[in-house]
Design a protein that fits this description.
The protein is an alpha/beta fold. 47% of the residues lie in helices and 20% in strands.
Length: 197
Amino acid sequence: MAISFVDSLDSKKHLLLLYEDPEFAKLIEFRFIKNGLKNDENCIYASSEDSGLIVIKMLSYGIPLKYFQSNQLRVLQIKNREGSKEAILQSCRNDTKRIMSDLKPPYRIVTRIVPNVDTKEGICVELELERNLHKTFEEFGGSILCPYDISKIEETKREKWIEELRQNHHAEIRVSKSGQGSFSYLPTSLKSNRNRK
């Protein structure tokens, strides 16, 4: 069900991917990218994982080498954030500029700009960035998939953080430990979805 939802995307969306099964989540991320490439969209995959390893996994998944060679698909590595909220935010702004440089719409991006959301500072900065993006999403030139491993979200207020994430995305894709996936449009997006029809 989650894969068919990703396959059905035909307009730009701000998507939340909450997962307990990292391997199945990776399949959803790669499918999102592969579909964008088929639609002639420019794509970026940015994560804290080793970028070379991600490229190998994408090639194994069936994403053709030509997309890397033509720069239609770029894979970037983002470092974990340390320090105060202000220091983390400044690092994020620098990475956002790097990600968005030379990117022409339409595009698809898979990223979470703060890799270490297991700290209060990290999740607070990530939520601030998610809120700002969601408020100005109409100006954004494409779709973005924001992946979150549920077990790595700061635990003392995890349910509160997840609810705030849900409030700042158009739809949620959830992947359980068993690899089962589901999706739902989120209440904050229903009005904007009705206006698009």
